[in-house]
Write a structure and sequence with these properties.
- The complex is a heterodimer of chains A (113) and B (116).
- By secondary structure, chain A is mostly beta strands.
- Chain A is 0% helix and 58% strand.
- Chain A is built from no helices and eleven strands.
- Chain B is mainly beta and 116 residues long.
- Helix content of chain B is 0%, strand content 55%.
- Classes of the chains: A mainly beta (113), B mainly beta (116).
- At the A-B interface, strand 4, strand 5, strand 9 and strand 10 of A face strand 5, strand 9 and strand 10 of B.
Chain lengths: 113, 116
């Protein structure tokens, strides 16, 4: 079945850039998402990218997609303490199965002063 | 109310109890989902409803019974649960894939369930 993998932890200093990586196995993945989860809260959609794109930028967030290597990354510029959270990548296949998201285990981002 | 709401936010129940989780979306979506989030495990999709019809049951035990009376409301009825069912239960909604240009899922805050 589909598999999505992420490293478990990342620690950065405030003001630095954070890069969270994700690899997936389903070559038919059409949409790839990044979600943020703060303690005690649900998942907040940050951004998503279609598989025919290789980059998407949204304010401090930059998503890079290497479809050949099935590698997705999320770069957060000027990381702030409010960015401390768990970040999940997720993928969905094309067509009618498009709403069956497969999530990674999440990367816990810790921002230190 | 905006977005996706869930009640209750916290629930403690015994193994012989019957309880229900409620989810409501105010986004005009036609698909709704239940997920289970356990510690140190990936988010698990449990059920998918498209236009009130269940289209996915991801091998979920029958002690979890979903109900979707309309496109805005989703319930998860619980009975004779086990301690290992303790988890955060998340509801989400989206447009139907293929019918809209985007169908990203929006999540509620979750119900933290503890089975004693």
């Amino acid at each position: 079945g589909e598999d999505v993998e992420q490293s478990l932890f990342l620690s950065v200093r405030e003001g630095d850039s954070s890069v969270i990586n994700c690899t997936y196995t389903d070559s038919s993945s059409t949409y790839l998402y990044w979600y943020k989860q703060e303690p005690g809260a649900g998942l907040q959609l940050l951004t998503y990218i279609f598989s025919n794109m290789d980059m998407k930028q949204d304010q401090r967030l930059t998503v890079l997609l290497n479809k050949k290597d099935k590698h997705l990354s999320l770069r957060i510029a000027d990381t702030q303490t409010g960015d401390s959270a768990i970040y999940f990548c997720a993928e969905s296949p094309a067509g009618g199965g498009g709403n069956k998201l497969t999530f990674g285990t999440g990367t816990q981002l810790k921002v230190e002063l | 109310e905006t977005g996706v709401t869930q009640t209750p936010r916290h629930l403690v129940m015994g193994m012989t109890n019957k309880k229900s989780l409620k989810c409501e979306q105010h986004l005009g979506h036609n698909a709704m989902y239940w997920y289970k989030q356990s510690a140190k495990k990936p988010l698990e999709l449990m059920f998918v409803y498209n236009f009130k019809e269940q289209t996915e049951n991801n091998s979920v035990p029958s002690r979890f019974s979903p109900e979707c009376p309309n496109s805005s409301h989703l319930f998860l009825h619980l009975h004779t649960l086990q301690p290992e069912d303790s988890a955060l239960y998340l509801c989400a909604s989206s447009h139907i894939p293929g019918l809209e240009s985007s169908y990203e899922q929006y999540f509620g805050p979750g119900t933290r369930l503890t089975v004693t």
